[in-house]
From TrEMBL, chain A:
The lineage of its organism: Bacteria, Pseudomonadati, Pseudomonadota, Alphaproteobacteria, Hyphomicrobiales. Transmembrane segments: none annotated. It comes from the Bacteria. Gene3D superfamilies: 3.10.450.50. This is SnoaL-like domain-containing protein. Residues 14-110 form the SnoaL-like domain. It comes from Shinella yambaruensis.
TrEMBL record, chain B:
It comes from Shinella yambaruensis. PROSITE patterns: HTH_LUXR_1, HTH_LUXR_2. Residues 450-515 form the HTH luxR-type domain. This is LuxR family transcriptional regulator. It comes from the Bacteria. SMART domains: HTH_LUXR. SUPFAM superfamilies: alpha/beta-Hydrolases, C-terminal effector domain of the bipartite response regulators, Nucleotide cyclase.
């Protein structure tokens, strides 16, 4: 396994801001689910990314973008973790996400992301 | 309204838009012409973009010389390689390091060159309605010269629609939109140069260099580019998969756009989308012009097209007044959706009258069932069953499934049993009834009177009616019969009064119908 770090706020911040998709993928359990809710994927029809393989592709795609990410306001409570993320594309378009994570045996098993962006 | 931005490609500004915020980037490389802002006005286009942007960040742009991007000297258009730089410039501006490239039509060769030149920036290729060599897949020299003639004479009037989606030429909404689309996407000179440049496209040599996962999509009866174009690509791009889907429209945003979005989504995300379309219970009406082919050949193209246009306008007005939720015109038939079966049946009665006023006889079917609605489309078994019920109806008749009768109790409509129809997947056959309007002072079955007859006309009037049916104008008839134009005009007015018809086109249709008897 690639994992070299405990999954905590600091590790997530470093991996996201460093656009390290491989590192991010290593934080998830095999059967983890990332659920995305946004304007195009409303609460009654959210987008689910299931399994570490798909989640690895998900982060790989996001990390291939020439954009900046800033992770802030990390909150940890028992096996739950939350953070906000402010991102910007080179043309000035901004994205803002809030994420809540559930950990089990030190790995993310469930993550819900709510995001909004300039359009 | 989405923000339109500009990317710098050399000295030129390339207009682009970014839609959605899915994890992967999807660059849409347009075909012949495009206009970012106008495209959104088309419901099919916005439906397609809505579907694609649910799982990706769609980056779309207008090629240099088209739409909202900088114009280029029409006499010296850049070649396809130079245009490829526009893809790169737009990706850079939008911060896309790596993207799936969706090339449509003429955008396909461009996407192929991009994938061959920049594999590190190409996550995957999706090529819709494409080809590698224009002259062998799209038009030969003769067809090209003919097309160039159409461009030169009719650019901006929607003249090219018949080359791209002949099914929609008589569509009241789409045809005028297409004319605007021509005008707002390229000037006449730019369109001509673009077409010339496209005609020179040959990227066959680049195919072996494409080394990314590739999905080809082609509609089986594509009116503009033969599916052979994609078959050729499949044979020469390593590992490419080809999906041939039903349909004849060439533009990617017309026809069944959900099917296209499904294929793209499955290919890129690995997951077939859970059917997005909503299933609703609906009352459906199919109104078909009876003997359309025969009438069309009798009347000639122009009179026939005028006749169907008049009918389409009258039918849409009547159907909307009676509560139609969704309307579609398919060449010689109207397909409409209603909330309740009585509304659908009443509309059928109104359409029968509207058709009769124009000299057209309709055969109609009404049915109730679950359909899938997505944007402007209505699909599902129930739609096909309604078509078949309409197929059972004779001239002037309205047939319905017995469900319509059962659900219309209390509506004042009456129904008479007319046997059964087998439907695949149903355990027992569907009972069919004939719709009969309630008429207090007349027999329950509509009077099948002889209607107006040629016998009411004088010999001279009959002679003139025959000329009208041939599509001749009043001055031409006057010259032929050695009468004054005023006299001919008076005769035509008398003919319309005696036959109780509203227009020359209706008289022509009536005359054609008489000849058939």
């Amino acid at each position: 396994m690639l994992r070299t770090k405990a999954v905590d706020g600091a590790a997530i911040k470093q991996a996201i801001e460093g656009r390290d998709g491989k590192m991010l993928a290593s934080f998830y359990a095999d059967d983890a689910v990332v659920r995305v809710i946004d304007r195009n994927n409303p609460p009654s029809k959210p987008r689910d990314v299931r399994g570490r393989q798909a989640i690895a592709t998900f982060w790989d795609d996001i990390c291939s973008r020439a954009m900046t990410h800033q992770v802030d306001t990390t909150i940890a409570e028992g096996s739950r973790l939350a953070f906000t993320q402010a991102c910007a594309y080179p043309d000035g378009t901004r994205v803002f996400c809030a994420a809540i994570l559930e950990l089990s045996d030190g790995l993310i098993v469930r993550q819900t992301v709510v995001q909004a962006w300039d359009e | 309204m989405l923000e339109t931005r500009y990317a710098r490609s050399g000295n030129l500004h390339i207009a682009y838009q970014v839609v959605g915020q899915g994890a992967l980037d999807l660059v849409l490389v347009p075909g012949f012409i495009s206009n970012l802002e106008l495209n959104w006005e088309d419901p099919g286009y916005s439906r397609l973009l809505k579907r694609l942007s649910a799982f990706s960040r769609v980056i779309q742009f207008d090629k240099r010389g088209t739409g909202l991007s900088d114009p280029v000297d029409a006499a010296a258009l850049p070649d396809i390689e130079a245009r490829m730089d526009d893809v790169r410039a737009v990706m850079d501006a939008a911060g896309s390091g790596r993207a799936a490239i969706l090339g449509v039509s003429e955008g396909v060769p461009m996407a192929i060159l991009f994938a061959a030149a920049c594999p590190e920036r190409t996550r995957a290729l999706i090529l819709y309605g494409g080809y590698a060599h224009f002259k062998s897949s799209v038009m030969d020299e003769t067809a090209l010269e003919q097309f160039m003639g159409v461009l030169d004479a009719g650019w901006g009037s929607g003249a090219t629609l018949k080359s791209f989606a002949p099914r929609l030429v008589n569509d009241k909404r789409f045809a005028p939109w297409w004319a605007r689309f021509e005008r707002l996407s390229a000037s006449p000179a730019a369109a001509i140069s673009l077409a010339r440049m496209n005609a020179a496209i040959d990227v066959r040599g680049a195919l072996p260099a494409v080394n990314v996962p590739t999905l080809l999509i082609h509609r089986c009866n594509d009116a503009h580019v033969s599916p052979d174009g994609s078959r050729y690509l499949k044979a020469r791009i390593a590992g490419a998969r080809l999906v041939e889907i039903p349909g004849s429209d060439h533009p990617v945003w017309t026809g069944d756009v959900d099917r296209i979005a499904d294929e793209v989504e499955e290919f890129l995300t690995g997951a077939r989308p859970v059917t997005e379309a909503d299933r609703v219970l609906a009352a459906l009406l199919v109104a078909r012009i009876d003997g359309a082919e025969r009438l069309a050949s009798r009347l000639g193209d122009r009179a026939w097209s005028k006749c169907t246009e008049d009918f389409q306008a009258a039918a849409f007005t009547a159907a909307e007044r009676l509560g139609a939720r969704c309307l579609r015109w398919d060449g010689d038939r109207l397909v409409a959706r209603f909330d309740g079966p009585a509304r659908a049946a009443r509309t059928a009665l109104a359409l029968r009258d509207a058709g009769a006023a124009l000299g057209l006889a309709l055969a109609q079917g009404v049915h109730v069932g679950e359909i899938e609605i997505g944007g402007e489309t209505m699909t599902g078994l129930a739609v096909q069953v309604t078509e078949r019920i309409a197929g059972l109806a004779g001239s002037g008749e309205i047939m319905a499934s017995s469900l319509v009768g059962e659900l219309s109790a209390g509506s004042g409509l009456h129904f008479a049993a007319r046997g059964v129809m087998e439907v695949e997947g149903r355990s027992h056959p569907l009972e069919i009834v004939l719709v009969v309007a309630e008429q207090h002072l007349e027999p329950a079955v509509p009077k099948k009177g002889p209607g107006p007859s040629l016998a009411v006309l004088t010999a001279r009037e009959r002679e003139i009616l025959a000329r009208v049916a041939d599509g001749m104008s009043n001055p031409a008839i006057a010259a032929m019969l050695a009468l004054s134009e005023h006299t001919v005009k008076r005769h035509v007015a008398n003919i319309l009064t005696k036959l109780d018809l509203g227009s020359r086109a209706a008289a022509a249709a009536f005359s054609a119908g008489q000849k058939d008897r």
